[in-house]
TrEMBL record:
GO terms for molecular function: serine-type endopeptidase activity. Residues 199-438 form the Peptidase S8/S53 domain. The keyword NADP does not apply. Gene3D superfamilies: Peptidase S8/S53 domain. SUPFAM superfamilies: Subtilisin-like. Residues 1-21 form the signal peptide. This is Peptidase S8/S53 domain-containing protein. The active site is at residues 208, 239, 403. It comes from the Eukaryota. InterPro entries: PCSK9_ProteinaseK-like (IPR034193), Peptidase_S8/S53_dom (IPR000209), Peptidase_S8/S53_dom_sf (IPR036852), Peptidase_S8_Asp-AS (IPR023827), Peptidase_S8_His-AS (IPR022398), Peptidase_S8_Ser-AS (IPR023828), Peptidase_S8_subtilisin-like (IPR050131), Peptidase_S8_subtilisin-rel (IPR015500).
Amino acid sequence: MKTFSLVSISLLLSVAPTSFAAPTAKASTSLKEIRRRAIENNETPEKHIVVLKQNEKRSWNDIFHEMGYNKTDLDGLKDTAGFRTSESFGRTFTMKLHSREIESMSSLSHIEFIQKDHTRSGAGVRIDDPRFDAIPAPTFSGRFPIVKRQQGQQGRLNIQTQNNAPYNLGRISSMHSINKNGRDYNSLNYNYAFDAPNGKGVDIYVLDSGVNIDHVEFQGRAKNLFTAFNGDFRDLHGHGTNVAGIVGSRAYGVAKRANIYALRVLDAENRGSDSDFINALQAVVNNHNKRKNDRDFIGSIINFSIGGQGDNALLLRAFQGVFAAGIHVSNSGMNDNVDACTSHPQKYSLTTPMITTGNSDINDVKAAKSNFGKCITLHAPGEFIISTGKENTQARSVFSGTSQASPAVVGVMADLMLRFRELRTDPQAMKAFLLKRSGGNVQGATGGGSILNNVIDFNNNP
């Protein structure tokens, strides 16, 4: 397994203008008093993540006592300032801070840096179009032959075909453009060719708005793992359930036998915060480390169809920790028709094994709103994608966006893990393999112009 060392904090801060490095002097005025004055002056606080230095081992009570707070004060800050502590990828706390608090806190010798807790959003849009309402649901059985591959049999295929698939599945299993023959986005009669193991034993982590894990198309393979919303795992938006269905549902999914773990980090408006993303990534690493010695375990992949403005040094550190653990990541390129390098974590694809995915349509044309540039790794179909819905156990939904392109990459990675052992815990090798085997040419794309391919049947006509 390849490892990825953390870059120096000085380098991280050089690309994170909202971070505040910490000198070694001690604050002369208590932070409690500084906060009181800021409140009296009606200053507006913003939520920040405060990162302690690695050698800081004192209790939280002792640390905040130095700042002028007692335990009762801390209990009050939980309600008034959103105060929370965390051990995810370092010892941190989040809290709404005023500018003078940040300036004074940065002078404490045990503070490594302070980072704004940015808000980011999901990168897919629900499509309400009556053309999709009348089409019958697919009846793909999801039954597979038993395939046991011995050592030295890597790459051997047991190809199965789903002939009532949505177009996006047909496109990724062919080196050729879609031959529509009178069909369109709302048709469910495309051919999807895949290898029979199809992700079995692979754990896929969907960090999103939640997943309707009881949907019949998940066949009991979906579980809740983490929520940032006081024990509420429900998908109140629908984005996450649609994404998870593309990853691994029976009728609409790429990897139809993979395990799906739901991590709810987005609210009903499809928005979430960096601190919650970081805690969820730590939950993924923890579960991966528990699972990796199980006999049926193959590997782990994260789908992160989320992005937004503003860098975050701790978020980058978290993703570096994920890669160091041998976990793969695909994320969405976002939908603003701008340089993808202006969004995060999309920009991390330049310096890490992260795969950032652009959105192509049924004609292999870059979607109008899909971001572009050197931070896009490749493209996958993401326009008008039919998948699972949140409303009930048989609901269907249609979304468009790079959010719907990214999970196709995740599904293909799950399939490749079973065929090529050397890719299982090597995110950099997986990224290089996908790029080498992708084909086609996305019209209008500047950056990542090839189209995802599952390397199954180069002659398949979808």
